[in-house]
Write a structure and sequence with these properties.
Helix content is 29%, strand content 23%. It is α/β, with parallel strands linked by helices. It starts with 9 loop residues before the first strand and ends in a 25-residue tail after the last helix.
Length: 280
């Protein structure tokens, strides 16, 4: 496929969610969106091909800005060498599909597919609440479930699913997610007790240097984060609902260093750990 001919720092990031597919070009030097975000509802039959058709519409809207650059795309699922091994919030037809290849073929350009929490985590490390932090950073997204990203010295360990830790006989996210709070009509104080149990368990397993808490509920962080008693500093995410888009663009730069545009045809996968080293 062709090499990049767009602005060397502007890459399109697209975030596929259960209800909407969102995208915008990102200035990789700052992490800021360089165009108005486009959001299109996720197809009711949210198969890979149906979602790829929506992604193609977004790509077309920004084609003049991005040229033939690769595109970063997130999905709410693990991504192992381009293949989606499981899917909870989109059509089950995703399971076992090399969705990265399918998207690349349908769009006629290189696509980097990445787990949505991993994208958000990388965005927070490069541009947000964890920028400049060394050591182990764990980014959590509190939403329908609990998404997690584990990053050590700027290098992402992809596809951690720490929201599914079994704690006291429960899948953690069924008790401590923002959806659980809403479903059970928990006060912030009662919910924080569950979060305390969850973050304490993760802390004892990984001893991170920093927790970053994202998801829509993080906008109300002052109502629950101060109630948590941990040895690890815990802070709210900064990029909010743009984190997936920004992280999707960042993974393109991680796989295809922009100074070496000719490498865009190498065919390596986003899950190759050495390619996730972020700028120091």
């Amino acid at each position: 496929m062709a090499c990049m001919t767009s602005s060397p720092h502007h890459i399109l990031g697209i975030d596929i969610g259960g209800s909407g597919i969102k995208g915008a070009p990102v200035d990789l030097s700052t992490g800021a969106l360089t165009g108005s975000r486009i959001r299109i509802p996720t197809p009711k039959k949210s198969t890979p091909k149906a979602c790829a058709s929506v992604v193609a519409q977004i790509v077309e809207q920004f084609s003049a800005q991005i040229g033939d650059s690769p595109v970063g795309v997130t999905v709410p699922a693990p991504v192992v060498h381009g293949v989606v091994p499981m899917m909870a919030n989109l059509d089950p037809a995703w399971v076992g599909v090399d969705a990265e290849k399918l998207f690349s073929d349908q769009l006629g350009r290189q696509v980097v597919l990445v787990n949505d929490a991993d994208a958000a985590g990388l965005a927070e490390v490069r541009y947000g609440a964890a920028q400049g932090r060394r050591g182990v950073v764990i980014v959590t997204t509190l939403g329908t479930g609990i998404g997690t990203a584990l990053i050590n010295d700027g290098v992402l360990v992809p596809n951690t699913e720490l929201g599914h830790l079994e704690i006291a006989g429960f899948d953690a996210e069924t008790r401590a997610s923002a959806a659980a709070k809403a479903r059970e009509k928990l006060s912030y104080q009662r919910w924080s007790k569950r979060l305390q149990i969850y973050y304490s368990a993760v802390e004892k397993l990984f001893w991170p240097d920093l927790f970053v808490v994202g998801g829509g509920v993080s906008a109300s962080h002052e109502r629950f984060l101060p109630l948590l008693k941990l040895q690890t500093p815990i802070v709210p995410a900064m990029l909010l609902n743009q984190a997936g888009i920004v992280g999707a663009a960042a993974v393109v730069a991680a796989r295809y260093p922009l100074a070496e545009a000719e490498g865009a045809a190498r065919g390596v996968r986003a899950s190759d750990p050495a390619l996730w080293d972020t700028p120091k």
